[in-house]
């Protein structure tokens, strides 16, 4: 890929110079200065500076200094900040000029009030009282509320214009990006927009029982590598932008951040009363807060609490590089809270305006960074009018005609307050995404995330990339080609298939599927599939639980107890509402072992067989309250953002003499997954599995726990158990992990800069096999080969425990795992180091 890009650079630079040289050749103006309080002379941080009527501008730093360069020019410079009067300063048409601004406060001066508080700063007394009264102001305490939501998301590539070390100029990527259309960021540096979207939706929430719903009415999105604006609209709407500071924790970027108005306020934060100012016509206490330990994952910022009712009026909370979070230079949330309609008597408020800024840290000193801005406004608020429970299903709904690209529509539905720079982003991003270099980057990113590569006008995707090649003891070199249709073919019909070939066994394997979306409200899909492929015992799709990387890896190396399976399946799946999803399927499969296997057909005459056919009906019920289902072009996936457990129950009924099935049997299984916060101690995740098979059937149809003989860690596997080490027909399993996050390492001066996180893990499996199932194994098969048996668990459960360090070099995790039982089994490891790596915030 590097060679391909390098070969295109010359032609690409030529076209970029032709297209964008006129914009670069315009005269540049640099404006700088310092913003201070006109009375005290103190610096005013984070003040807004902009050229009147233009898109150029910036924000002052913590010392009140600002500086930006622009090719735009106007007659005056506007300077504004919360709590101060906006001032205008004339501009001169000169290459450089310095404008120092002195702002006059709009604060309402109160009569002198002496507060005598025990134990220090009076801010603690105010915050304590505000928390005591939070039930009066917390939106979650309302019977119900609803509003019209407008959200806008922008993503930029920035910091590419910085000179490199030793005085050298920008690198090739920086030079390329500098020739693209850009918008100036708050520091006056160019930023290239790579994604921008607008979404108009209706958001609903009720308290008893807790239910939420978002109906996305209209959306438009444009960006590099973005092919489905519907997914972007669902992921960037109000459902994922709920930042209620009256809750104990703010969930942001899959992190639990303690709120300064939550239960941990006194444990985590320090507070300082700064001043009294007027915010939205209300006199408020201005209180600064910061974490007691700078490396703790917590906010630093300012809250404005009204002086009469002690309710939150406004908050500015941010996280910087000192906190234990990766790849982030700064996260900033600004919110404005207002009294909601019909609630003046009880004082309930809602955040009517939320602005989120995420400025990423550059991975290397010379690499570009990224900047994400999210703007959410609430209008037409209605409170205490709950809808019927059925109304809230599904929790996230995308209108059939959601796509709206007309600028006039958005101009009439867009709230006030967006800057010209923000409005211009749509025009600029369309130019950026059509540049060949950016198209290539978008295709690479899409292939990495989705695994499929679109073939253009034929409406087919090829993939998945991970399954294209493998090498194992049975097939030798395995090559696989897969195709599927995309939304360009049909939004109802989904066709797919693959063909694989092994150079050693010289056999073709195949698979094909046909699915049809019956309806989208409630979502119901049916389909059928047929496959003939190589498998190995213990690594079935049921065990792998959707782990595509581990599934691809299991096709490498020596396959333990491999077999060929011919399978025919038909199914129907429907979302029944209230978090329930029901699946009913009928499967018929033929088991052809490639290892010495047999089972007793008739003990009286000692008849055995080495192949069997099973026909089974499966009823699966999944209960996942709080889970949001995201609908893409032809796929549907879940986003589990709540602390509610997810329960899956499965019953399988084997049918003898139906489609030549050889057995009648019953199999029951239950799975529970849950994750919850333990305050400052971190987050716990656990999973419980249980199953029971009261029938007598060959052991390939029993439960085979998922082992892991690889060097990397697998979340839902017993990581020191071998493949096919145990077989059970009744079992109870437990997986647990507790992440202490920075609780320990943040307190060690020598290593807290590394931002390591400590974890503790454990796994237990108890179970056994009935005597009847064990007795099905004969000594030899029809050809006289000794039949391989299996080991089952006895009264002692299988136990392994571990501990690890996460966030090494920001991407690596190392776990030390100890096996405590069955340590004398052949070819087992009693201790192991397991590695895993992913982009982890």
Automatic annotation (TrEMBL):
It comes from the Bacteria. It holds the Pfam family CarbopepD_reg_2. InterPro entries: CarboxyPept-like_regulatory (IPR008969), DUF5686 (IPR043741). This is DUF5686 family protein.
